[in-house]
Specification:
By secondary structure, the protein is mainly alpha-helical. It has helices at 3-12, 17-27, 33-43, 45-51, 127-134, 140-145, 152-167, 177-206, 216-219, 224-242, 247-254, 257-266, 273-281, 284-293, 298-320, 324-330, 335-339, 343-365, 369-388, 394-402, 404-438; strands spanning 73-81, 86-95, 112-121. It is globular.
């Protein structure tokens, strides 16, 4: 009766067919097979409900269900597309007369036929995913190791650099296109290097987490030695980009490498690995200004750096909620686990701190009003994320995490427009001074 439930659970866990049947034969010999089958259905309830219509109880299915056809129920389902580009799943459920009403799942308490439709968003591959999939097969594992198929991390690393470069531009001028391009290449390469380092440290952990089981170092498509050699190449390219900047930037940029190496270890030690990630990801807020002016103005850059750090804690806490169940089982620590049900309260605090840092940085720089309008838009965006966030829905957490790319873009455009309007303010001040002197 419970054979199919156990088999379904093993399939979800991607056990090979040979091992699957060996485990299944062993499971059927033990006395607690019913508990094991129920556990399989409960742990993967979202998958089973989606595919087989299982509730938390075990329901006979397949050839073994024939002997229960007079007292149980039968389900079938189909899928089709609707006009809104959703995958619509239609379920038809027929509950036959039964004296064993207690065996029916709670979702179907009555006899008869029911038809249920639910909408599931269709996953549309991004351009980056399509490009990676079209590359030669022997190249794809290295591209996936760099997470080229998921560029959101590169954007989140790049935006603090772009903010600082734009804020360091002269009044009435656009930011340096050369610097923006150099930092874009650097963010792309160093984000890939950081992912390689992270996967080298975490390959044993990734093999036990459902979301990360397909990573190249876990599935064996790349060996650890090949990954180390590839990492050296990435760091070499990053160094070449760094050498295009002034000597102050070379020293400042090289000093961040310690944080890059240290971050993957922090999840084993502290509940605040997101703080270390924030210090690492927002180093560009210091580096971008130094690339323009040859030094760091702490009055402008330090509040911007701390604001970016709070922002990283904000979005990476949301991201960490996707894996919090596996993390607890594996002993991995994160702010998602520490904050727990108080996550929204903590996120509100870090979002407020980010806005405060951005305002302080703007006032120190003397930037124009469009910047403050963009800060208000960013505050609205963060508040919307906190309000709508469902920390127990991994899909919702992933969508909220990705939406933070819009936060970086909004603020960057506000800084650019604010610096362009800054020259008008300076001209007005000069005109007022001349009038005072003439009087």
């Amino acid at each position: 009766m419970y054979r199919h439930a156990i088999l379904c659970g093993l399939i979800v866990r991607k056990i090979t067919p040979f091992s699957r049947h060996s485990i299944l034969d062993t499971c059927l010999k033990i006395s607690s097979v019913r508990s094991l089958a129920s556990c399989m259905c409960t742990n993967r309830r979202s998958f089973c409900t989606r595919k087989w219509g299982y509730n938390s109880k075990v329901i006979p299915y397949g050839s073994l269900a024939k002997q229960f056809s007079q007292s149980q129920h039968y389900r079938c389902s189909g899928t089709y597309r609707d006009r809104n580009k959703h995958l619509v799943r239609s379920k038809t459920t027929t509950v036959l007369p039964s004296c064993k009403k207690s065996s029916l799942p709670q979702a179907l308490p009555k006899e008869g036929s029911q038809r249920i439709s639910e909408k599931v968003p269709v996953h549309v591959p991004q351009i980056s995913e399509k490009l990676v999939n079209k590359c030669p097969l022997h190249v794809q594992p290295y591209l996936k190791l760099m997470r080229i198929d998921r560029p959101i991390g590169t954007w989140l690393l790049y935006w603090p650099c772009g903010w600082s470069i734009a804020m360091g531009a002269s009044a009435g001028c656009l930011p340096s296109l050369e610097m923006l391009s150099l930092f874009a290449i650097g963010a792309f390469v160093m984000r890939g290097a950081g992912c390689t380092i992270n996967d080298l440290w975490d390959r044993d952990i990734d093999s036990k987490v459902a979301r990360t089981q397909d990573r190249p170092l876990v599935n064996g498509s790349i060996s650890p030695l090949d990954a180390v050699i590839f990492l050296m190449g990435q760091l070499g390219v990053g160094l070449l980009v760094l050498l295009q900047l002034n000597a102050y930037c070379v020293v400042l940029g090289a000093s961040s490498l310690g944080l890059v190496i240290l971050y993957p270890l922090m999840k084993r030690v502290t509940y605040w690995p997101q703080f270390i990630l924030g210090l690492t990801f927002n180093w560009g807020a210091l580096l971008g200004w130094a690339a323009i002016h040859g030094s760091v103005d702490l009055a402008v850059c330090l509040p911007l750096y701390l604001a970016g750090t709070c922002w990283t804690i904000f979005y990476d806490t949301i991201y960490a909620h996707q894996d919090k169940v596996d993390d607890v089982l594996l002993g991995i620590k994160s702010t998602a686990i520490k904050f727990g049900d108080n996550t929204k309260l903590w996120l509100s605090g870090f979002g407020t701190s980010m806005i405060g840092g951005l305002l302080l940085s703007g006032m120190s720089c003397g930037i124009g009003w469009p910047y403050y309008a963009s800060v208000a838009a960013v505050a609205s965006h963060l508040a919307s994320q906190v309000y709508k966030l469902d920390i127990n829905n991994p899909s919702d957490c992933a969508n909220k995490f990705i939406s933070n790319h819009q936060v970086g873009l909004i603020l960057f455009l506000g800084i650019v427009l604010g610096m362009l309007s800054k020259v008008e303010k300076e001209n007005e001040e000069k005109a007022n001074k001349q009038v005072v002197q003439e009087c």
